[in-house]
Design brief:
112 residues, alpha+beta, SH3 type barrels, 2 helices, 33% helix
Length: 112
């Protein structure tokens, strides 16, 4: 059961994707999850705490950090992807049905 819940957790993480947005169009009040690509080719993922004309403050897993606007190359906002979710469900339903049917046959509850 733990393996199944871990598998579902991993699969449903793929229902999200990051979309590039203009820095000025990011809504602060939504506390959005963002990925900031820096000029030095590193990236930082976190939840947006605040932003102004000079800095952006993100809360990451480890701490809270301030990023200067001059150091930012690109900003991406995490969005829910309906198409990825629908595709995932479309794949999972037949797999689940066939696994349950196989289990039923193995345990002797049915015959082919």
């Amino acid at each position: 059961m733990k393996k199944l819940s871990l598998l579902l957790l991993i699969l449903f993480q793929s229902c999200y994707s990051y979309k590039t947005v203009d820095y000025n169009n990011i809504a602060i009040e939504k506390k959005q999850k963002v990925e900031v690509l820096m000029l030095n080719k590193t990236s930082v993922k976190g939840q947006l705490v605040s932003k102004n004309d000079k800095t952006m403050i993100l809360e990451t897993k480890d701490s809270q950090g301030t990023i200067a606007i001059e150091e930012i190359y690109d900003v991406k906002v995490r969005k829910f992807s309906f198409l990825k979710s629908a595709g995932l469900i479309t794949v999972l339903i037949p797999i689940t049905i066939s696994a349950l049917f196989s289990l039923l046959v193995i345990l002797g509850g049915g015959s082919i």
